[in-house]
Specification:
- The structure is a single chain.
- The chain is of the alpha/beta class and 154 residues long.
- It contains 3 helices and 7 strands.
- Strands 3-1-2-4-5-6-7 form a 7-stranded mixed beta sheet, covered by helices on one side.
- α1 runs parallel beside α2.
- The protein is globular, with a radius of gyration of 14 Å.
């Protein structure tokens, strides 16, 4: 898996102060997408063990009260990302008690593959559905268009 950006301190992508990872790879290619540069799964930087450790350390840093991890992109549930995302989410659950995980995907919850479904037990909030420019609303909290759903899973 590749990633485009990592923000160790973010107050936009989910509630509270968070760590946010923007992964590479997205097959939806939504017109009007906020991050079209993340569509190519080969773009960005290698997501390696050092980045996993950085995220875990940042989440556990007591100098900043981070509420959790936000996973966006691209699409964290892009098929080639699933193994790395599942591993990251499992590691966050094991090493960062009390931190929540939010995940944004262009896939609909009811259409996920078994590999994508395996990630959901680690996710607290799933924001699903493709971005639809005709339904865009900048006033929406934590989503770009009215068709997207904020689903509490845990």
């Amino acid at each position: 898996m590749q990633y485009h950006q990592y923000f160790p301190i973010d107050v936009v992508n989910g509630p509270g102060t968070r760590c946010t990872l923007f992964v590479s790879g997205c097959e939806h290619r939504c017109p009007g997408c906020y991050n079209p540069g993340t569509w190519n799964p080969e773009s960005g930087h290698p997501f390696d063990e050092a980045m996993v450790e950085q995220i875990l350390n940042d989440l556990n840093d007591t100098r900043i009260r981070r509420r959790g991890l936000s996973l966006s992109g691209g699409d964290p549930l892009f098929p080639e990302n699933c193994a790395a995302i599942e591993n990251l989410c499992r590691r966050v659950r094991e090493s960062c008690p009390g931190k929540d995980i939010w995940l944004w995907t262009g896939y609909l919850r009811e259409n996920l593959t078994p590999a994508q479904e395996r990630i959901l037990p680690y996710v607290d909030v799933l924001v699903d559905g493709p971005f639809i420019a005709a339904e865009a609303d900048p006033a929406l909290a934590f989503r770009g268009s009215h068709n997207q759903r904020i689903l509490t899973l845990a």
